[in-house]
Amino acid sequence: MANTSVSIPSSGYVGRLAPSPTGALHLGNVRTFAVAWLRARSCGGKVILRMEDLDHPRDKPGAAAQALDDLRWLGFDWDEEHVQSERRPFYRATLAKLPAYPCVCSRRDVESAQSAPHAGEQLFYPGTCRDRFKDWDDAAAACAPRLPCWRFRVPRGATVRFTDTFVGPVEQDISATLGDFPLARDRDGAGYTLAATADDLAMGVTEVVRGDDLLPATPPQILIARSLGREPPTATFPSSSAPTAAASRSATATRASGRSARPASHPRRSSDGSPPPADGTQKTGRPALQG
To answer: pTM here?
Structure first.
C-alpha cells in the first residue's frame, strides 16, 4: 500500500515545478504541482520553476508563457526560474562525462529486435550500435535525414535499487531489462532523460514529486546520476489518493523479478526518451486546464 504520511524535511528542502510547453496544463499537472509546492512551502523550503522546453517538435507557440500565467493565477510562486533550452552548454558538458554513444536505430528497429516482448513493458535495446560509429557526425551521415540519438552504455549487471517515497522498494537490473537506454536525440545531449537528471543535481533538488506514470523513468535517471558521482532525489505521487493498480503492478513485478514493468497507463515516449505531449490544446479563459 502506498505511504501517504511521509515526513517532510524541516530544512534544506528544494522542490521543483517542471511544466512543458506542449499544450495546456491539465488537472493532473496542477495536482502534482500543488503537492510539490505545498511540501516545499510547508517546511520553509525553496521552489524552483523549470520550463522543460526541449521537445521542440511538440512545443506549442505561447504555451510556456500561458503555463506560467496559469500557475501564477492558481496561486503558485517560486524562488528561481530556469529554461532548459537556455542550458545547452551545460548539457553538452554533462554528456561528455557520460559513457554515451550515438545510435541510428529507429523505434521499429528496436521493436524488431525484441526476442520475447511483454505487453506494457519498456523496450530492451540489445546494443546494436555499440562501437559502430566513431562519433555523432559519422552516425548522422548513416541515418540522414533522420537524426541519431545518444544512448547510455549500461554496464553488465547494472542493478538499481531505491526506495520510492510512496511506492516503496524498487529494484531493476537495467542491463537485463532495458539495455542501453536513450539519453537524447540531440547533438548536445539536450533531451529529457539527460537534462532532467542533470538539472535536478545542479539545482540541488532534494525531492521530485511527479506522477506515478513516470516511475519507470527513475532507474535510468539514477544510473545517470551515479555515473556522475551523485545520488538523485526520488519521489513519486500516485495519480489518485489510493495507490493505482498500475503502480502496484509495476512495483510488485519489478521487486519480484527485476523485470522492467512499465505501468499500463504510461504513455509511450519517443526514441529520445522525451516526455509525451500534454493532453489537449490551449483554450481561451483561465485556468486553461484539461481534465
So the answer is: 0.78
